[in-house]
């Protein structure tokens, strides 16, 4: 929560999450999940190659995008 609050001083953290990848179980667990519409902790199967989380896992790089950038990634086929 502290990371979320501190980052909120620098960038928009309206929708923010921290996820951990369990490679053995092929799952992503969102330990910290804050969304303006939903704030439940979730665990997802990591088989969706078209998600933002999958993109970060594949590239090994952090990702900060806006709606316009997401739309471009969808157009390129990087996201589903």
Helix percentage range: 25-40%
Low-confidence stretches: none
Count of DSSP E strands? 3
Total number of distinct structural domains = 1
Biggest sheet, in brief? 3 strands, antiparallel
Helix and strand element order: HEEEHH
Strand order of the largest sheet: 1-2-3
Strand content: 15-25%
Total helical elements: 3
What structural class do the secondary elements suggest? Answer: alpha+beta
Terminal-residue CA separation: 29 Å
- The overall pLDDT, averaged over residues, is 81
Radius of gyration: 13 Å
Describe the secondary structure blueprint for this structure.
Layout: H1 2-7, E1 16-22, E2 27-34, E3 42-45, H2 52-59, H3 67-75
Antiparallel strand pairs: 1-2, 2-3
Keyword list:
single chain; 80 residues; alpha+beta; three-stranded antiparallel β-sheet; 3 helices
Structure characterization notes:
Helix content is 29%, strand content 24%. Strand 1 and strand 2 form a beta hairpin. The protein has one domain. A three-stranded antiparallel β-sheet has the order 1-2-3, with no helix packed on it. The chain is α+β, with helices and mostly antiparallel strands and 80 residues long. It has three helices and three strands.
In short:
The protein has 80 residues and is of the alpha+beta class. The chain has helices at residues 2-7, 52-59, 67-75; strands at 16-22, 27-34, 42-45.
């Amino acid at each position: 929560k502290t990371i979320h609050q501190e980052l909120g001083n620098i960038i928009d953290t309206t929708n923010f999450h921290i996820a951990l990848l369990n490679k053995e179980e092929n799952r992503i667990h969102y330990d910290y999940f804050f969304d303006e519409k939903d704030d439940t902790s979730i665990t997802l199967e990591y088989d969706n190659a078209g998600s933002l989380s999958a993109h970060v896992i594949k590239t090994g790089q952090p990702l900060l995008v806006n709606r316009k950038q997401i739309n471009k990634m969808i157009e390129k086929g990087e996201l589903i």
